[in-house]
Specification:
The chain has 52 residues and is mainly alpha-helical. It is 85% helix and 0% strand. The protein has two helices and no strands.
Amino acid sequence: MENSHISALSAKHAGLEARIKAESSRPMPDAILVASLKKQKLRLKEEMTAQH
C-alpha cells in the first residue's frame, strides 16, 4: 500500500517536472505558472521524503 502511494507521488512529481520543462521552453513562459508548478513539486517531494 505505502509503496504504491510513493510510486503515485513519484509519477505526479515527474509529470510536474515535465510541465515545468515544457512551460520554461516556451518563448514567453508564464512565470506565475512555473512558480506554482515548482511549489507543487516541492510539496510532493516533501511528502515522499516524509513517507520513508
